Amino acid sequence: GENVEQHPSTLSVQEGDSAVIKCTYSDSASNYFPWYKQELGKRPQLIIDIRSNVGEKKDQRIAVTLNKTAKHFSLHITETQPEDSAVYFCAVMDTGRRALTFGSGTRLQVQP
Amino acid sequence: NAGVMQNPRHLVRRRGQEARLRCSPMKGHSHVYWYRQLPEEGLKFMVYLQKENIIDESGMPKERFSAEFPKEGPSILRIQQVVRGDSAAYFCASSAGPGSTYEQYFGPGTRLTVT
User: Which pLDDT tens digit goes with each residue over A51-65?
Assistant: First the structure.
């Protein structure tokens, strides 16, 4: 089955700095890659996603890059703010199957 | 535009009792997924359903767990004879039908505590 590894497990940055979270996956059939933000006690919230036919996607301060050959993708958050503090999960999907396989999460702390 | 709804939000059961968790998908969505999240861990896929059909139950434990999505009403995840190890947050997600986007939107979760 699919195996997703996510690094780092914790990340602390100063407000205004950039944050980068990386994920690798094993199944070359995976072709959909979403990122979720989860605040304590809340639901996972979809923040950005990318399909395998695209190398990069950007939405304001958030961007995702995908290297399908190397089977890794990354989340980039620029100009971080204290409200960006949360746990971020990467996920992968083989769209023929539709189940998401999640990474283990990255706890991001943005220091004011 | 109501999102995915789950109830109850918190559920306490004694060992050996049954737990029933309910999920109503987002309006217009016909696909439902259940995931389990243990404390300080990621989400693990359990089961994928469409109306009256289980499409993929590869993540469901073989015993005590079952799921359904009837023609009318919410999807239900049932856990029989609960044990302490079943304590977790159970999240439901929904997506639109095939041929459309793959985004899955999550409900607020049911936090199950087995005492």
Answer: 988 899 999 999 999
